[in-house]
Design brief:
Elements lengths: L7 H8 L18 H4 L26 E2 L23 E6 L3 E4 L6 E5 L2 E2 L2 E2 L1 E8 L2 E5 L8 E5 L3 E6 L1 E6 L4 E6 L2 E7 L1 E3 L8 E9 L10 E7 L13 E5 L5 H4 L4 E4 L3 E2 L2 H5 L9 E5 L1
Length: 284
């Protein structure tokens, strides 16, 4: 039987007190997921980060990198700062679907949707060129980017970055390049690993049951081991509560999920301040 909504299958499994279903599935038809209908970005916890204008002085034909991608160099140094990353990230939020371009000033080659599963598209900006912005996209394949016109979006900035280190099985939260939280995490198993790469917070959704924690952070990451979770058409990486695996996660972390990242509720609550569009870097 085809699952109709984002958490229909996995919530049932969680309610049955099992820990198997932890990769979020997304329906390809574009219908708003049930869990999101109950309360997503409109009522998400946290605060709004004041907006700012993009850096000025970009000359035509010159691409300025706004936010260099993080990699293994993103691990913190002795001072606790993130190496190789900007202290804040420019975010472009769409109010309507807009044209996308393969290069600044080139012909349109598609459309960037105004929303993803009912939540506004809040996309991190990684470069700008003469009135165009290069943004990360939430849709498959992972790592997808597009150029969009800067006049068609609302710009803001976020000082937050989430780094998930698979080698140490920990999640770190950074603010303006300084670490403010480090917590043990439940990550994907060897058979269904948490995908590595440069992702971002797509939106917040209401937890289907208390086992998922106070809320669920849906990211732009997608499982590479599971392409179709319970006949739903996708498998999205999310950050949520322990789903009964708190003892295994303990204080050191564990490989217990099918790709999502599980945290103790107290640690998850500390991520409530992180707005959509904030980077989520998964390193190994």
């Amino acid at each position: 039987m085809r699952r109709r909504h984002l958490w229909t299958g996995v919530a049932a499994v969680a309610a049955a007190a099992t820990a198997a279903a932890v990769v979020l599935a997304a329906q390809p038809s574009g219908h708003l997921p049930h869990a999101v209908r109950q309360g997503s970005t409109a009522g998400r916890p946290g605060t709004t980060v004041p907006g700012r204008n993009p850096p000025s002085g970009t000359s035509p034909g010159t691409t300025t990198t706004v936010h260099p991608p993080a990699s293994s160099s993103g691990r913190s140094g002795a001072a606790g700062a993130v190496r190789g990353s900007s202290p804040s990230t420019l975010v472009a939020t769409l109010s309507a679907s807009i044209p996308r371009y393969a290069s600044p000033g080139g012909p349109a080659d598609g459309t960037v949707p105004a929303s993803w599963y009912g939540a506004p598209s809040a996309l991190p900006v990684i470069a700008q060129d003469n009135g165009y912005l290069e943004v990360r996209l939430a849709q498959r394949p992972d790592g997808s980017t597009a150029w969009i016109g800067s006049t068609s979006v609302r710009l803001s900035s976020t000082p937050y970055r989430i780094v998930i280190d698979l080698a140490t099985e920990r999640l770190m939260l950074y603010k303006l390049g300084r670490i403010v939280m480090s917590a043990p995490a439940g990550i994907g198993t060897t058979a269904a690993p948490t995908p590595t790469g440069d992702f971002f917070v797509a939106f917040y959704a209401k937890a289907p049951t208390p086992a998922w924690g106070p809320f669920v952070i849906v990211t732009s990451g997608h499982s590479r081991a599971i392409s179709d979770w319970e006949d739903s058409g996708d498998a999205i990486m999310a950050i949520h509560g322990p789903l009964g695996s708190g003892p295994e996660i303990g204080t050191t972390g564990a490989r217990v999920s099918h790709g999502c990242v599980r945290l103790h509720d107290a640690a998850l609550e500390q991520l409530a301040v992180v707005p959509p569009g904030s980077p989520v870097d998964v390193i190994d």
